[in-house]
Amino acid sequence: MLTAPEIADLIHRREWTELEDRLEDALRDATGIARLHYLFSLSICYYEQGRIEAARGRMNEIFGLAVNIRPLLTRPILVDLAVHCEKYGRVRQAVSALGWIDGTEKTDVDLNMNLRLRMALENATANKRLTIVPLGQNCIPGDLLKRWGHGRHVVDGPFNSGIYRGDSPLLAIEGDFKAFRDFENLQLSNTAGGVLSATLPKYRIFFNHETGPFWLERECRRLRNLYAARIARFREAVGGGKVLFVFTRSSKVNLEHVWDVVKNISPSPESRLLVLDFLKTEDAPSLTKDPRVTIINTAFPDYQPKYTWYISPCFNSPAGFQWEKGLMQQIQPVIEAMAE
Fold it and tell me: 172, 246 in Cβ contact below 8 A?
């Protein structure tokens, strides 16, 4: 039997190969709630290895099992089920899972998540023809738009994951992505939690998602292959017509430089730039008059002890929900205008 503490330890150490083998072995005899928890962990394992379709495939089994043992499912398990369903694009199933929670047990977080998912479902079913390309400096552009139903338009490119300080994503593009091939300058170190991680300090790039031995063994072979595929998707996407580039400014960079790079790689007059500006620095007056550029000044909501934008209890909290909803009320008109 594989215990919950053992699973938690393997996840913390990012030992995905060992975790997958042990979960597959444990699943041979597991039933009921235990089987559900093993399947949850296995889907995480697949996801962290970049095997998204395998993770989605497991969700069909997970949801079917949940239906069969529904009377045994407590509120925490149902919330976990909804989070997993949403993560792998099963929005209708996520809404169903939240609906199974007894009304007297539902919290504001549950109600906010349910409302957001219903709004996301409406966006997801709308017939829009555009491509959304995240440009960094962090994961907010892709994650936010996926949470609100635009996931099928978001390109899984090199800037969806990771931290890119300053103009590092722009220099990477201008340098024909040499930064992602220059692994001689890669540095490996342990995070505060003791997990092996990789950085390219010369280019101010931090791979904070692809961590642990699975990604970094054999001279980072899997990491190299992953980013080669992401760069190929990026190149293909930017050559299209209606491309919305989304950039988060959380560290100093000239926005006019961002716009120049976008126009250079995507010369179509239908391309647009959307900036989520956490610095609120008025350093690009010409862009405010450009109809193809939208700059949204924003800041994380007040939240104790700290707002962590990628954690479900935070972004589904009343403060997180209102913040994201306010952002989407400004982003949605840009998407609608491009999709006409």
Answer: no
